[in-house]
Specification:
This protein is of the alpha/beta class. It has 2 domains: 210 residues, Rossmann fold (3-Layer(aba) Sandwich), CATH 3.40.50; 97 residues, Rossmann fold. 37% of the residues lie in helices and 15% in strands. The chain has a 6-stranded mixed β-sheet with strand order 1-2-10-7-8-9, sandwiched between helices. It has a 4-stranded parallel β-sheet with strand order 5-4-3-6, sandwiched between helices. Helix 3 links the parallel strand 4 and strand 5. Helix 2 runs parallel beside helix 3 and helix 5 packs across helix 6. The longest helix is centred in the middle third of the chain and has 18 residues. The radius of gyration is 19 Å and the shape is globular. The chain starts with 19 loop residues before the first strand and ends with a helix. Bound molecules: 4'-deoxy-4'-aminopyridoxal-5'-phosphate. 4'-deoxy-4'-aminopyridoxal-5'-phosphate (PMP) binds next to helix 6.
């Protein structure tokens, strides 16, 4: 379905229209399709968000060319925003918490962004606070706030969701997507629901994350290694609407890691750990639909592979589980 057949004038024109590929690991009766977001120029789903948010902020006069965006981000959003910033004449400053992959930081740096390391307590909320302080020091700066801005959801409502709908001629039974900010899940779910009102929407988080509490699920908080999804503070994002989510499943580090390796070795997909988690969850949902244990309006499941495995080589993603977990 990729339609980039004509010459483009900007790398921003290559964002989106990513392929949707059936996974071999699906149960035959209910195929699982994965949207391969590694095909974006910055290698992740967040290129869509970076482009959309920055273009809209400029269009709406929230910032002028020459101004700066300051965002707390662990990486992919920063890369996506930095790519857009290069083409839209904006400065990019990112407040990067500790513990995330060094590859992402190098890429943000290569794209000309300024990196501010953040090592304080308080996770993303505290990093956001720091971003606001930095923005105040600039003459013309905004903090786009991917965890709060409806523009994050809108990027997926306008692009990712419709692409999925079209690729499957509206025959979408379930959408199974990992949740970090919730923008991908919410935007896709809203777009697909317009055509398939009873599509089953399943959110995915790492075991140890506590997003499920928004649906009243019991969660035991704990550490996890899966990168890009999950939280220890379910209030971190304003983009999840409990009424729009049918189910919330947890996937362990061990299962996600094993799936990352299986996807590479058996299916040729070089993806990160949030894709591994999404794949395990999507295959489970497909099996439940096939067994008549979960209702879905069509016999198909769609998931998203948000980014690639090369981004996590320094974290031993293709090594032994203990090496990846940092125990070896
Ligand atoms: N996977 C990865 C690798 C990510 O970087 C992100 C974004 N944090 C996600 C999944 C989740 O996407 P969203 O923020 O749209 O929920």
């Amino acid at each position: 379905m990729t339609t980039h057949h004509t010459p483009k004038t900007s790398v921003l024109d290559t964002i989106g229209e990513t392929p949707l590929v059936e996974l071999d690991g699906s149960p035959g009766a209910v195929p699982v399709y994965a949207k391969l977001e590694t095909f974006n120029p910055g290698g992740s789903v967040k290129d869509r968000v970076g482009k959309h948010i920055l273009e809209e902020l400029l269009d709406r006069g929230k910032i002028a060319p020459g101004g700066a965006i300051v965002e707390p981000t662990a990486g992919n959003t920063g890369i996506g925003m930095a790519i857009a910033a290069t083409r839209l004449d904006l400065e990019a400053v990112f407040v990067v918490p500790e513990g995330f992959s060094v590859e992402k930081e190098r890429l943000m740096d290569a794209l000309g962004a300024e990196i501010v390391h953040f090592s304080g307590d308080g996770g993303m909320a505290a990093a956001a606070q720091r971003a606001h302080e930095i923005a105040k020091e600039h003459e013309d700066a905004v903090v786009p706030q991917q965890f709060a801005t409806p523009l994050n959801v809108q990027a997926h409502y306008r692009t990712t969701g419709p692409e999925i709908r079209e690729a499957l001629d509206g025959e979408v039974g379930a959408v199974v997507v990992g949740v970090g900010s919730g923008g991908t899940l919410t935007g896709i779910a809203r777009a697909v629901r317009e055509q398939v009102p009873d599509v089953s929407v399943v959110a995915v988080e790492p075991a140890g994350s506590t997003f499920g509490e928004v649906l009243g699920r019991e969660r035991e908080e704990g550490p996890y290694k899966i990168e890009g999804i999950g939280t220890h503070d379910p209030d971190v994002t304003e983009l999840l609407e409990p009424a729009e989510i049918d189910d919330f499943v947890t996937i362990s580090d061990r299962d996600a890691h094993a799936e990352v390796q299986r996807l590479a070795a058996e299916e040729g997909h070089l993806v990160g750990s949030s894709s591994g988690a999404a794949s395990v969850a999507a295959r489970q949902v497909a099996e439940e639909i096939a067994a008549g244990e979960r209702e879905a309006p069509h016999d198909t499941v769609v998931t998203v592979f948000p980014d690639g495995g090369e981004r996590y080589l320094s974290k031993n993603i293709y090594g032994h589980f203990d090496a990846w977990e940092g125990k070896a």
